[in-house]
What we know:
Blueprint: E1 17-20, E2 35-39, H1 45-83
Antiparallel strand pairs: 1-2
Amino acid sequence: MTAPDKDQERMVPPLQLSVFDVRRGRTEGQEADKVLGFYPASVDTDEQASVVGLVQAMSAFSSIFDQVSSYIFQMKSYTSVQKSGSMHLKAP
């Protein structure tokens, strides 16, 4: 495999800003409809949809850890209440 020429290399802008609506573009081939705005505007629509898809995937993945940490916090609160001898559960 040979290295691509400099002309063939794709430059990724150092800053990309996107505004999107997750309720749109839910069907196959319509992903670009989610994008409401994108900076820089020179990025093609397929790349914009790809960036938005990656952001959605990262958000969904990280939300798993939010749920787990919330569950662990609740369990620690419940355990500490049990150890103190109280019969009432405290809200975390």
